[in-house]
Amino acid sequence: EKQGFKHYMLKEIYEQPGVVRTCLEDYLRADWDGDSPFSPVQLPLDPSLLENLQHIQIVACGTSWHAGLVGKYLLEQVAQIPTSVQYASEFRYAPPPLLPNTLTIGVTQSGETADTLAALEMELKRRQGLEGALQPRLLGITNRPESSLGHLVPHIIDTRAGIEIGVAATKTFVAQLMAFYLLTLELAWQRQSCDRPRLAELVTGLRQLPAQMEQILESQERYIEALSHDFAETQDFIFLGRGINFPIALEGALKLKEISYIHAEGYPAGEMKHGPIALLDAKVPVVTIAMPGSVFEKVLSNAQEARARDARLIGVTPLDEAEAQHTFDNLLPVPEVDELLSPILTVMPLQLLAYHIAARRGLDVDQPRNLAKSVTVE
Ligand code: F6R
Hints:
One of its GO terms (biological process) is UDP-N-acetylglucosamine metabolic process. The chain is built from 12 helices and 10 strands. It is an alpha/beta fold. Bound molecules: fructose -6-phosphate (F6R).
């Protein structure tokens, strides 16, 4: 069952390039190029679901909420649609005022999370009749279309990740990100919010991801396993990112907490100086995602500020050792890639780091204490 892997989590981390490949095969048109008169995306969605949207709201919990944050970045920056992301557990008791022309997206790996289902059910009820003959516009993103979510919500994007066994979500997260890339490209196409050459660049970049993911697995696993030995006594970790990689900092911290029981926090790197920097000393490693793009120089200078407080800096970055020597003590290299697509790559070293630290501590990686794969109670 585990096909030679010590844990399901590691097996599922290795399945990620294949999951992305399947998503691309199923939902991206192979015959599309920048001159095609049709959309690059072929999602099985009713066209009325996406017409004239003025607002998108995303509800989810945990790792799926992190995928929603990446989705918001894409939907706002590429498709130009104002988007909010809410914890389902908060949304259901304090729903925002109703706006017309809204698409509500529920994201859930299990399709059974009680808070997410309740938030969507409430939204369905409060929106009945609001837009005349139009049914409330609800979309589910899940790898379990046969789940309760699939019964509740009329439109589903099946992320094609299949069933995940490890309690810590890995391949299902990457697959949720893929659903947001595809949805964003479809909306950008329909609304012409993004010019053709840029759209073509993103499509080409998506097609290159599986090979780049394989490259990360091949080149880094051993190094990260060895590095994890250094953290046998570590009690706190900080994860920093900015822009589209801020949610990945949150996700890196959550993975580490869940399976290694080490205290970890993710912050937008620019917020460090507003308080959290007081936590830093030589005992607190700071993992920083620094990818070329709109916030590259800013993140590097945030990392240098942390290093000046004696923290050990670990960089998730394409910089080589010479380039990084004034900023990072250790490198978790990822290929240089379009900034917008980088979360799919930057999350992988963080998953491996969490995995190896927990495995090294002899913990039950697939069944961490106090956690369940489906959270079916409130
Ligand atoms: C993290 C994790 C949890 C889930 C959360 C939502 O690894 O597994 O944080 O992401 O419980 O679960 P789903 O996606 O099933 O709604």
